[in-house]
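Hello,

Our lab assistant flagged a job as stuck in the queue for most of the afternoon. It eventually completed. Since we weren't sure the result was trustworthy after the delay, we are filing this so someone can double-check. Below is the sequence as submitted and the structure that was eventually returned. Let us know if re-running is recommended.
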Amino acid sequence: MAIHHETWAFIFGLLGNAISFMVFLAPIPTFYQIYKKKSAEGYQSLPYVVALFSCMLWIYYANVKKDATLLLITINSFGCLIETIYLAIFLIYATNKTRLSTIKLLLLLNVFGYGAMLLSTLYLTTGSKRLTVIGWICLVFNISVFAAPLCILKRVIQTKSVEFMPFTLSFFLTINAVMWFFYGLLLKDYYIALPNTLGFVFGIIQMVLYLIYRNAKTVEPAKLQELNGHVIDVVKLSTMVPSDPNSGALSVTVIEEDTNGKQEMKGGN
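-- returned structure --
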């Protein structure tokens, strides 16, 4: 007996929830290090602010759509919770200047930005038009987030080093994109399916580059043109971003030169 396409969509959505759950938990070692050091110096809050905004967008989309959206609500509700916890820890241990800039970013994007979008779609659109507008906002936002790995791809090619691009992370993000692509495709929800096509493509490119450069010799640190000895590269824009429309956690690798001129990875995820 053939399985109905909605059943397949539920299966892919369930798998997407499981993988997205693990992706959301990926930054735990980073925040454990922040807690141990009692300092968030060298880390960035932007990935987690963006991930929180993404989860908020997809929850709103799911509530407006209502049809077959339970799996979107579950994973993005968890995403909102875990990203809020990450940001709370970050704010506790950040410097005053960084704490202030993070609060400003949260107010700008997650309070005023989200609020403006919410009010405009509630009062200026109705019915299917409202869903279309919200869907396009989610789609465009996800595509812009999925384009972020271009930075790390360029870094890998320049340095001939994959230390900034963990294979396991690239693999799970690619699988995550596949799960949510089929979930959206089977439900004929192209606002979910289309961005994850891009996520799958970038994931494959990352893994191919890893296989090419995994045994390559890295260039001398002195030959790298860095700003003040620091480089911040976006590895993953999770969580993000919904890949599941999910998820989104973002990973940032911070490279800092030590006193001997060597480069050291200071932060991640």
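-- support follow-up --
The delay was a queue issue, not a problem with the job. The result is valid. The first strand starts at residue 230 and ends at 239. The chain is about 70% helix and 10% strand.
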